[in-house]
Design brief:
2 domains, about 400 residues, 13 helices, about 25% strand, single chain, Rossmann fold
Length: about 400
């Protein structure tokens, strides 16, 4: 992982309380550091019984803080809290949640919380019965009223082979995504409803064969993840993806272009931003065989017909003032064809891909695009990771949301 938005230059105070899940916190510290954040680890006395401070120091390259009264570190809680961009307590045990909810400051980490003005996020981890206890639920509810953020625990195998109810600390990659969302809480997209389409569609020839394309869905998934990180309520309409769907997002799975058109049509009237990054099939067989076509009696040709124009058919149902972003994958007269599509589909921005360029288009982790706006401006971006392309597109969308 290379330094990435929004972690590069951020200062994260990672609080570790005394639970077995603290072994995951070591990997979280590493992920945050690799993403470009400076990570200050503050451990409660109980947490040092599970993981040694030297482990975190080795992973972050920074001193680890453990004691409220360590020699030479008077007022560390003030300095650490003041310098933090965000505080993340992972794991947050039932004991620590109880102490935080009642405003105690009897160790360095709890004192840091009282001195903090930055956003604070708790990642609970405990036995499922402890998580369900009325006192824990009341403590969690009170923390929310104080403005703290909480990531709900996962369900899964707990310590000592205990059941599989809620209480398991989420994986470090999931926590990392939530920290990113915390850091971008002031985005103009925060609270906006964003619709993203991703992946290919498949048009059946018979029960076992279909017409499709090479789209992996990587670009659409990157856009959905980046919009969610900026605080948006994201709806992802996805054809068959070759990668996992992003964290925190509602996904509507579709197969055919008709299904994608229906899903988009149902959602688009309520969406503030629509980003059509999918590559729906342009053609489908005129007739679909009800049984597998055998070679011995296969027809010499398969007649094709066009599929619905999703962007075109949704023009009348778009929310007034919605920002519309489309994609154009072209092989010839690329700019002229993209501009024609921009006008015909009534878009605010079109993202042009040249299918002949190395490292761009389907199936790869990078992309090289040109952003063309309806005011005629063109911005050609260098080859970069699709996650970076997603942020560049959303930066443009944010300017439109702000009226710039």
């Amino acid at each position: 992982m290379t330094p990435a938005r929004p972690f590069s230059g951020a200062r994260i105070l990672l609080g570790v309380s005394g639970g077995i899940a603290s072994y995951k916190s070591a990997w979280l510290a590493r992920l945050l550091s690799k993403a470009g954040a400076e990570v200050d680890v503050v451990m409660t006395p109980a947490s040092t019984e599970f993981v040694g401070a030297v482990t975190f120091e080795a992973l972050t390259g920074r001193p680890v803080h453990t004691g409220l009264f360590d020699p030479g570190r008077a007022l560390d809680h003030i300095k650490l809290a003041r310098e933090a961009s965000a505080i993340v307590v992972a794991p947050a045990t039932a004991d620590f949640i109880a102490r935080a909810a009642t405003g105690q400051a009897n160790d360095l980490l709890s004192a840091c919380l009282l001195a903090a003005t930055c956003p604070v996020m708790f990642v609970p981890a405990m036995n499922d019965h402890m998580w369900a206890h009325p006192q824990t639920r009341a403590n969690v509810a009170h923390l929310r009223t104080l403005g703290y953020h909480l990531v709900e625990p996962d369900e899964g195998m707990l310590a000592a082979g205990e059941g599989s109810g809620p209480g398991r600390m989420p994986e470090p990659e999931t926590i990392l995504a939530h920290v990113g969302r915390l850091l971008e809480r002031d985005s103009p997209l925060s609270g906006k409803r964003v619709l993203v389409t991703a992946g290919p569609t498949r048009e059946a020839i018979d029960p076992v064969r279909f017409v499709s394309n090479h789209s992996s869905g990587k670009m659409g998934v990157a856009l959905a993840a980046a919009a969610w990180r900026r605080g948006a309520r994201v709806e992802l309409v996805a054809g068959p993806l070759s990668i996992d769907a992003p964290i925190g997002i509602d996904v509507r799975r579709v197969e055919s272009t008709d299904e994608m058109a229906a899903a988009v049509g149902a959602l688009i009237p309520e969406c503030d931003v629509v980003i059509m990054a999918a590559a729906p099939s342009d053609f489908r067989p005129t007739d679909v065989a009800s049984s597998k076509i055998k070679k011995a009696n296969a027809p010499p040709t398969i007649e094709l017909t066009t599929t619905p124009d999703i962007l075109g058919t949704t023009r009348s149902s778009r929310k007034p003032g919605a920002i519309m972003v489309g994609f154009a994958l072209e092989t010839d007269d690329v700019v002229a064809n993209a501009k024609s599509k921009l006008v015909a589909k009534e878009l605010d921005v079109i993202v042009l891909n040249d299918a002949k360029e190395a490292g761009a288009g389907f199936g790869v982790d990078t992309n090289r695009v040109t952003l063309i706006s309806k005011n005629g401006s063109e911005e050609r971006l260098p080859l970069m990771a699709k996650s970076e392309v997603a942020d560049a597109i959303l930066d443009r969308v944010e300017r439109l949301v702000d009226g710039r």
